[in-house]
Protein 1
Amino acid sequence: MDFTLNDEQKMLIDTIRTMGEREKFRDLAKRIDETAEFPWELLKKYADLGLLGMTLSPAHGGGGQSALNAILVIEELAKFSPMIAAPVFESSVGPVRVIDIFGTDEQKQAVLPGVCRGELSVSVCMTEPEAGSDLTALTTNAEEEGDHYVLNGRKSFITGGGHASHYMVYTRFGKVKGYKGIGGLLVEKGMPGFTFGKQERYMGLHGMPSCDLFFDNVKVPKKNLVIKPGDFNKLMLTFDIERCGNSAMCLGVAGGALNEAKAYAMERHAFGRPICEFQNIQFTTVDMATKLDAARLLVYRAAAGAGQGLPSMYEAGMAKAFANEMVVSVTESAMQIFGGYGYSTEFPIERMYRDAKAWCVAGGTIQMLKIGTASMIYGRRFDQRRSSS
Ligand SMILES: Cc1cc2nc3c(=O)[nH]c(=O)nc-3n(C[C@H](O)[C@H](O)[C@H](O)COP(=O)(O)OP(=O)(O)OC[C@H]3O[C@@H](n4cnc5c(N)ncnc54)[C@H](O)[C@@H]3O)c2cc1C
């Protein structure tokens, strides 16, 4: 078993780190949080550096790189802020991968090159007001009519909502109940009857577009069918790549908080000594580093196992749940090391804590991931609908 990154991967991390320092990403992260404005100019920069569509197929302008390489870049950028890493996340491990893996040639040609140039982006649209964890209860509906589907329904909390050019919509087809009736349709911004709600205001991740989507008799051409009903598992399998990206965000935020806390502990004095000389600060720091490393091993295992394809559900689910809990714990410990300054908006730690909390829900809650992992451990399904009484 080889736990070392290869030279190319080490160089990739180094390049990202140098760029972050040169471009003053630490200051940019603070500015994005304060203004809640996304720095769209990053897209061109990242496209020029080949950081968009890193994992997408080269035939359509993608980098053809491994999931692990994209994870390494996301982690390094998220040390500054998840917003700064977001374009790499969206274009390399986001829902565009569903099109890359399962789409028709026409769909790929229409979307992938534009994503790699930073001109197009794809949002994933699963959650509804009455169907979050209970995803298979979704009621958004597509009815077949001639050469198109008529789409009706509403989606909530859609990252990229209002900004993205394309929306991978999980919808029920006809009246088929449960997961067997669910498939994926690609809906384009501007289609008549497709509108957006007001932008969400979150505790963290300021600057990330997000809103509800409304479909009112939207005519979606049949050629936009990406995943046919009955192939719901394909949607979920591809979503496991996104879960690795979510976990990489956690590694980055936790790594950023650990770096800040370490530097602060060496600088800050109490009782006439730098606080890093107190054993409790040392033990706290060691616990933070240990949890981060443990999460990193789980995330890298899942991503390395995926290669250029799909990760194992077991590995991706376990990695995300662990990384989600880890990042909250590590950023909270960093706040304690900073004392009163950790609670001040002058320092980045409170932002990192706010950003950390998002990942425990986005991409599926920790609880739902553990339910999925439990099924795999016991080798049987645990029906959440059945009453235990
Ligand atoms: C920052 C952010 C970004 C997001 N981006 C997107 C996006 O781009 N696209 C998208 O489709 N969605 C997105 N979401 C929505 C997210 O996927 C859902 O919020 C999530 O799946 C939970 O659904 P819910 O909010 O309806 O909570 P609910 O399903 O109502 O759950 C509420 C609580 O009950 C728990 N719970 C529910 N059922 C069980 C059970 N059987 N056993 C134990 N506990 C249970 C949950 O774990 C949770 O703690 C985003 C959310 C956030 C916060």
Protein 2
Amino acid sequence: MLTSIRQRDNCKVHAQEVDKFDAPFTCPKCGCETILRQGSVKVHHFAHKPPVFCEYGQGESEAHRICKQSIYDELKDAPNVTLCELEKDFGTVVADVFFMFSGVKVAIEVQISNLTMTRIIERTEEYDELGIYVLWLSVFDSKLDEKKYAPKQWEKWLHATYFGRVYYWLEELEIIPIHFDEYLLWVESTDYGGGYYRKSKRYRTPTEGSILNLLSDFKFREQKGGTFGNMYVPSCKILIDNTDAWWK
Ligand SMILES: [Zn+2]
């Protein structure tokens, strides 16, 4: 986690802005003590003091922290952006980055790979109830440059939710959208048949769109929800890029 409560004045502070003389700190979720970690290489952050009984901040990787901190740093002074907050607690859900864009509430969620499908859907529904538009992001992985890629379940879910796109964070406010095309497998010809291509169930071919800017290349959209293939998508509010489908 990148923020904690400074006990002295009960203020929410960023790991980047305080030092060890500001201690003690506590977790905003469970109230237990947290420890400030400020190395020379890693993004400054907080960790629960062991033993840890709280789920909040667990499983957060360095890539996640870099992504969150960078998006927050870029957004906080951007035009038309107000109330920008890192790790904004709404009680039922904590947004990695929350902000108002031209008066519309937006949540950026970057840790989808850590969550179960049930939690992803619950969180999406919670944001909808709060009237917040959500953008789920994952950190880009070079495996996506290959022709053959096995999307995880959450990537398939995002693909259904975002009308055929999954968004990957590159740096600052740069995001690359990827569409997953069919991946065809050759079925060898034998006496019993074959000699044709069939769609792979496991693999897809990632098709990259143009790099997008989080503020200038997205619009707000209502996803009515439904079941697509075997994916259940709740009715929700999403941020989606305003470019035409690039894979057709
Ligand atoms: Zn905690």
Protein 3
Amino acid sequence: MNVKSMNVVGVGVDSETRCSHYHTEKDIIAIKFKCCETYYPCYLCHEACADHPAEQWQVDERHVKAILCGHCGEELTIEAYLNSGSRCPTCQSSFNPNCQLHYHLYFK
Ligand SMILES: [Zn+2]
Ligand SMILES: [Zn+2]
Ligand SMILES: [Zn+2]
């Protein structure tokens, strides 16, 4: 599957969904924002490119597929992502564990 076909919006997005804000080897996830149902690599990209404030997913919406692995293109539910141990369950790529510091920006 071609990740580029998922149409991730942001600043300086590369083929594995890194952006100009977060671009280490492990910054390979994109998050779909509830407000616009659009994938962005990070909240700063949303801030830069969207014309509205970001909305967070609610606790009862963890079954929604809102996380994209930029390596293999698999979409994960929020629940699966939170239980993934910072590793893609499909391709085993490591995700940046520091993303956990920002969970509150994306999920309740
Ligand atoms: Zn939005
Ligand atoms: Zn960004
Ligand atoms: Zn993956």
